[in-house]
Amino acid sequence: MGDAMIVWPEAERLSVDTVGGKAYSLARLDRAGAGRVPRWFAVSADVFDAAIDRAGVRADIDAALTALFAAPAADAAAVDACAAALAEPLARLRLDDATARAIAVAYAALGGGEVAVRSSAVDEDGAERSFAGCLGTSLCVSGADAVRAAVVDCWRSALSARSLAYRAARGALCDPVRVAVVVQRMIDGDVSGVLFTADPTTGERDRAVVSATWGLGEGVVSGRLACDSYAVARDGTVVDRDVADKAQAVVRAPGGGTHEVDVAPERRSAPCLSDDQLAALAALGRRVEAAWGAPVDIEWTWSADGPWLLQARPITTVPPPARRGAGRERLWDNSNIIESYDGVTTPLTYSFARRAYAMVYRQAFELLGTPRAELDAHARTFEQMIGLLRGRVYYNLESWYALLRLLPGYKFNAEFMEQMMGVSERADFAPAPRPSAARRWGVELPRALSSAAVLAARFARAEALVAEFFRYFDRTHAELTAVALDALDFDGLADLYLEAERRLMAHWQAPIVNDILAMVFFGALRKALAAWGAEDDNLHNDLLCGTGGLLSAEPTRDLLALAEDVRRDPDACALLRRETAAGARAAVEADDRFGWLRVRIAAHVERYGDRCVDELKLEQPTLRDDPTFVYATLQSYLAAPPVTVAELDEREADIRRDAERRAFALVGRSAVRRRTLAWLVDRARRHVRHRENLRFCRTRAFALVRSIVVAMGERLAAAGVIDRRDDVFYLEIDELIAFARGTATTTDLRGLAGVRRREFDAHRAAAAPPERLRTRGAVYLDRVALAPAVARADAVAAGDAIVGVGASPGVARAPVRLVRDPRGARIAGDVLVANRTDPGWVPLFPSAAAVVVERGSVLSHSAIVARELGIPCVVGARDALARLRDGQLVEVDGTAGRVTAL
User: Fold this and answer.
1) 0.85 cut: is pTM over it?
2) Can you count the helices (H) and strands (E) in the chain?
3) Beta strand residue intervals within 406-459, DSSP E
4) 890 pairs with which residues across the strands?
5) Are 634 and 559 in contact (CB under 8 A)?
6) Domain 191-314 belongs to what topology?
7) Could you tell me which residues are beta bridge partners of residue 9?
8) pLDDT (tens digit, 9 = 90+) per residue, 193-233?
9) CB of 776 within 8 A of CB of 325?
10) 3-class secondary-structure state, position 591
């Protein structure tokens, strides 16, 4: 091979067949002159071919790939078997002496020191295949021997399980496997990331998308670490930013290679790029795109002396550009509301929820002293607090921020609202014009002082307000549920609904005031601990463990106690272990041997029957309709190691005592600080507990409304107005009232329900839009913003981690159980991984070693209940369902917020 072993970027006849896609792209990047590229050389793919032949393993490779080609598509077991069969042949690959010497000489010509060694497959980084994240990379490699070893590792990575899975998915198993290797000067960047010169989700060419984090780029491209995300217009203006909590960074290790370190507290939530840096990166990207003649994605790093371009390749999945309307921007987010309204939500539920939000929050602002004229002026804002995008419920953040401006302390309240909702970034809506000095001092200051006085008075009575609300709600709910629905016609049911709305939703001030207090005191506790020097960013969470008195945990405790009794009955225990949940239910209801169990389950359903999965969606059946979920939950408890209520209580108490010890040690002997800490902890616990318990009132109110609208559906179906009872869920609440009152604009409810059912079935079949998006102009005309989110998450390999937010302390090691629907799910000491949870999921928690949720915040339901039950929990673990697999062994650290594959 001679000189062809080593190829430098200035070589005259440089081809993909010789140096692979990555090196060829690097040469183009060098020659384009768009920006600085660290010096590099490539070890030719011919060297790889010679090593394969010299080791005598080509026949082994061909046989393994042939077997994989014959396996069914997407057969993970076949991929693993192929990788295992190739492990021994690949271990025989070696460098010959001539190549080893040539690499050492070329490495010296680079200047020695640290280099990055990357695979460059012949079919990589082209317009069809990127192999992103599949091939080997070694960073901070130092010394000729280490470089040579890294070259061989890159060869082997071309036939790793990850690369084989990618080839199988892309139909490339019959293509020759040829790999070159790039050796490039290592740049010790402070910030690194990836730049897309076109939006890879929407196809927009007029904006670049940047993902970035502290340290080296390994944390970005592997998906292991949290990253900031930015969108930059062609003129360099930053049009969108999502600043993540960047708890860890990948940096060079003292002895070579890389390792993860904790990010300094003041940098965790700080943007890692300035607007000027983003504009400079976007300009670099435009120059590279011009040289390529197509959108590209670029790996880059920013060191002390500016940006460096490390790699570039065409964006293989960019959709065709779409036109967007001009006009007003709106920001939508469903990070938190997805806990209540997961997936597609029917028109009846959405119209009722939208009406409820408007009524309840207007009352709350009235209670907090906002002048009626201000409320009237914002009437439409209250009606637009939530929206429906492709059948999914979203917060309209523009409305929420606008309403918060009606209260004093906007900045403080907005920050805590964002934490409570799990919103990752403050929206930059255009501020109102600055008022004149006369108005500021003569109108706004007195109003702010008056509002503050009203707020203080309301907050001082918060405990009394909550107690009064519970009494009023219980009394009113009992009166409304006592009405015999069978005795009412459609008109009477409409009257009952309006009465329930007037008597329940029109008296919802106390829950909102308490929500504000929970938000404020939870945030204040966190800030105080940080100010006193807390190094553990989750100490405030630990202090809320074992609060006690959570109604949302009571159904679970009741079922745990029932499971203990079932274990003492051999026949009942055998039945539940043997049968399906539905089969066990049928046997218990038919066999008097299980009469005691039948009575206990009936009592559970009578008391907690309104609490179920998706309990705020009127279209979902409750436990009263179908108690099979109770049997499935008992089966999970019996399959898992026994957990008693007493053990749960002790676990919670231990976490709480340890947190109190650490917190009071932090404040030392200062009497003022100790009293302040005790007061903040007490208030945070109290209002977080009230928040959960008041939510159970909301659950009961929604169940009441559900019983009414289901009865309305039965009347309409009996009258032949709709085809079946459940068609009522595809009508809006105002349409039902109008049909009863004679104010409807259409009486063809069958046709209306049919049109909507077809539309919503299409929403269910399509991928959901992203959790956070901006629309421009008329919302439903902006098809770009509403495009389905594109999943780009790589699988988590051993040693990799998903980083979220620690929500409940503790460390657990167990296999993963991916759960998309809790009904019928079996959890037996596994790590429960879900997109979101609501109170209906809680019975599964005691069977889980830990809980990992893609959505939610530290004040979301899953976090609060996990703390109450003493179970490690991580929320905000993005793409966990896509990146983890059933049975994969992981370690969940509920304090650090990390899920690590073992």
Assistant:
1) no
2) 32, 25
3) none
4) 814, 901
5) yes
6) D-amino Acid Aminotransferase; Chain A, domain 1 (3.30.470)
7) none
8) 989 888 776 667 888 889 899 998 887 776 667 888 888 98
9) yes
10) coil
